[in-house]
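Homework help board

Subject: predicted structure for assignment chain

Our instructor gave us this sequence and asked us to write out the predicted structure in token form, then describe one feature. I got the tokens but I'm not sure how to describe them. Can anyone check?
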Amino acid sequence: MVHAHSHGAVSPSSPPQPAPTTPRTTFLLVVSLVSALLLTLVGLWLLWPSSSDVPDRVPARAEGTSFVDVTVSGPADPVTGSIPVELPSGEESRMQSPGPSVPLAEGDHITAVDISRVSQAGVDPLVFMDFQRELPIGLLAIAYAAVVLLVARWRGLAAMAGLGLAFAVLLSFTMPALLAGESAIGVALVTSSLVMFVTLYLAHGLSARTSTALLGTLVGLALTAGIAAWASGAAQITGTTDEASAFLPSSAPGADLRGIALCGIVLAGMGVLNDVTITQASAVWELRGVAPTATRAELFTSAMRIGRDHIASTVYTIAFAYVGAALPLLMMVWLVDQPPTAALTSGEIAEEVVRTLVGSIGLVLAIPITTWIATLTVPGPATDLASGATTSDPASDPELMAPVSEAWAAEARASGGGASGT
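My token output:
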């Protein structure tokens, strides 16, 4: 479709076009995001840990031992439980039984620890370490990348690049800073802000729509962080309810377990916030495309109808994502005869409940905030070109969401039919 740009009187048949975004609105949006970026970079500089503050990494194996990849070559001995395995050289060896909780079958590829140099004579020289999962996980990663590229094409490639950069931030800054004992809430905000700046612009391009979604995401993250800080203190979320809590204090004395749990709550809500803010910003731009004469208040009302549907579906997504991750824990709690309130407020369950509720509150608040920002940023109501007013098509962001426009149009037709019937 060709967009005609008019700079003078036009024919009466010219359709109304949205008015350009006001320079003041664009200026405020740019100033807000530039200020947020500067604060993020200053926080990154202040919180970046020195190498002397980051604890040394712990060796994965004890001195005198080594890792070896082996293949189970037969059934376990019914008396001793010893398991025959084949070494990479083709020689046969024996491995100690890992117990009934780790079922092994012939042909399984596993990683074992060779303790022959430090063990007593007569003891099986190998100890089970873990299954070898490189091949299936690698195939899944390739399949994921292929599907994303096939469906989303260049935008999918940009999104995966953004995901890689996000993990680079986590590995190079977030984890070392937390291990060094830096402010958890500061690390969480700097990490999430930096990741959002990179991933949103990389995946969706530099545009007013993306900038609107980014600003809404940053506001939502700030609210989530504030709520998480209060909730983790009020609910006594200590971060000492899993195996890592027993390992970290001895290996990283400067790490604050409570702060790490708080940072995890904020980061857990980051991805979902990104999803809903992009959707809401796109909805407002699409609604403007199909209703160029609608007022900003009408745009906000229509976009919030879409937002409410998104809230309903995303709340389920958050809740069941945590249920799936904590299912064994939930089953263990279910087996204990205790009141439901006691189960939901104990240990690890309480931490998951707080994480779910905080993330959901931040998500719900981000939707009207982003919608409001988008309605202020989107081009204004159309001017009447037939009257001779001069304007130009602002060429709003391309690739508008057709399903959203169809839903809006259907609702508009239904409303019109109801009005005519009365």
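Reply (TA_rk): Your tokens look well-formed. For the description, you could write something like this. Residues 338 and 356 are 22 Å apart (CA to CA). That's the kind of observation they're looking for.
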